Amino acid sequence: MKTSQLKIKTSKITVPILKTLLFMVLIGAVTSCNNKKDASADDKKEKVTDDKKEKAADDKKKKVADADHTFDITLVKDSETIEFSENILNKEGNALYNNQQMPTGKKGDRRRSIMMTIGKDYNRGEAGVFGLFVVNEDFKPLSDINGSEKQVSSLTIRPEKDGDWYSAVSGTLTFSDLKFVLPTPNLGGACFKLSFEGDFKKNDNKKDIYQGSGTIVLSPKRAMGVYKEK
């Protein structure tokens, strides 16, 4: 009789405990599911935030990228017209300022110049434009072109790779928006807009003359520093 009563009591105690345990398991499962959903939502929000940051960084890079160099040049002889206009990547052109001691002449004489090269591997025969512009003590380029005298500016144009070149023998240069960056007093860079017109000889043939004109925009390079007017 005692044994039967003991079993009944045990049964009465066990059922509530089982219900409680089942309830706790269900609560735990629901909580775990909600936590996973919250974590998934947080991951999505974090990914969206990261994507926005990456896009903003890319946009910022695009905004501060160095501007292209541009030129628009025309050469004319009789009925022949040669047009040479392009946008060139900034890394494929430059303008370097140099202030050097003259190897000959009076002591203290210096040659100040801007050397401009536009076109990848121009010196190896690629198409492009080359200029050497003499600058005075006030950083003002001389406006005359004359390939037969020293200390006078020059300009050469090669419209096609390994093709004919045209060198200025006379004419004028007009600079605007001229700025310099000088990491040292004697070396640095320049940026400017150049308009020109004059006579150009073909392949050094003084009898084969073309009338040339055009505009060149030489853009600054951020890596050089801040360009300023002089």
Characterise this structure.
Helix content is 27%, strand content 43%. The protein is built from 1 helix and 10 strands. With 230 residues, it is α+β, with helices and mostly antiparallel strands. It is elongated, with a radius of gyration of 38 Å. The chain has 2 domains: 1-65; 66-224, no CATH class.
Q: What structural class results from the helix and strand content? A: alpha+beta
Largest sheet: 6 strands, antiparallel, barrel
Total of DSSP H or I helical runs spanning 4+ residues: 1
Give a count of the beta strands, DSSP E runs of length 2 or more. Answer: 10
Mean pLDDT: 82
Radius of gyration: 38 Å
Q: Summary?
A:
Helices cover 27% and strands 43% of the residues.
